[in-house]
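Quick one - inputs below.
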Amino acid sequence: MSAAPRRVVETPLDAGELRALVTDSGHGAVVLFEGVVRDRHQGHSVTSLEYTAYLPMAEATLADIIHEAQQRWRVRVEVRHRIGRLAVGETSVLVAAAGAHREESFMACRHVIDEVKARVPIWKRERYADGREVWVDPTAPTLPGESG
Amino acid sequence: MSVREPLTIQVLLFARYAEEAGTDSLIMEVPSGSTVGGVLDLVRTRLSRPDVLPPRPLVALNRSQADLLTAVRDGDELAILPPVAGG
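Output:
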């Protein structure tokens, strides 16, 4: 079987581990993005999130996004996305981008998280304090100041 | 092999679509020469609530994005994807 890493995982994410995968002695800048479950969304009090994925396509799309970023900038990039039920405050996604200089590392990290959110077949269901559960639809209208 | 043999397609549903349809996987027999759009029309006839699926949902054929005019082949995996919401 393929030796490619599993990037969509059910276990807690570790920024230090991901950082170690992308850095080497020629890198002067490492940018880490950490997406965290927050307690409010569009006026609702959120108690937890449940992520689900189309796993084989999610893995293939993440590999494509990483490859594209590494072609475009002189960086090494890695991504992990967690699935399953996550509590408020837990990390749902990690992006690490390492390069010689900060500019390319920042640009690559920003690009990769934007592409992950736009392209990877992963979905989330919010559980609210009132017991309701709702699938998040980013294409639905949002309240002012509520996005991402 | 006869070109008139029906095709067997595995259809996958996810997230809200799967929940509202009450299933995450269907095996469909469709006529030879069917397109993605044609399979979607047949899927709707199998759902208790055809309005679960929008007129033009995001679809992936064998794990790559496809459009409604793409022809399907025997053994294909057609995934019907709600708007993605990772991150």
